[in-house]
Specification:
4-stranded mixed β-sheet; mainly beta; 1 helix
Length: 97
């Protein structure tokens, strides 16, 4: 096995350790939402999550609201997704990376 992914919420340290012991590989985190606002996956070389642009359109903003254009800079994810009924949901801030 080459990869193990945790999805949804970030697991506790003991969950990482148990998965690594069971499967013999370092687990990674992948986080997305049912509303399809954003999907992010842990980078292999760090604990930083990277937004997967093919999943949905998001903007990465600094805490002051200005747009992030520099690779590797952290900030808020702001996106617009599709609700269960197929209607467009209003834009929302979904988290900080």
């Amino acid at each position: 096995m080459k990869h193990v992914f945790f999805t949804s919420e970030k697991p506790l340290k003991r969950h990482y350790e148990a998965a690594e012991h069971a499967f013999g590989v370092r687990p990674f985190v992948r986080h997305g939402q049912a509303e399809r606002v954003a999907l992010a996956q842990q980078h292999a070389a760090s604990d930083v999550l990277h937004v997967i642009p093919e999943y949905s359109h998001v903007e990465l903003l600094r805490l002051d609201g200005s747009r992030i254009d520099t690779p590797g800079e952290t900030g808020m994810i702001v996106g617009q997704g599709t609700c269960w009924c197929g209607l467009t949901c209003p834009s929302e801030v979904v988290g900080t990376l």
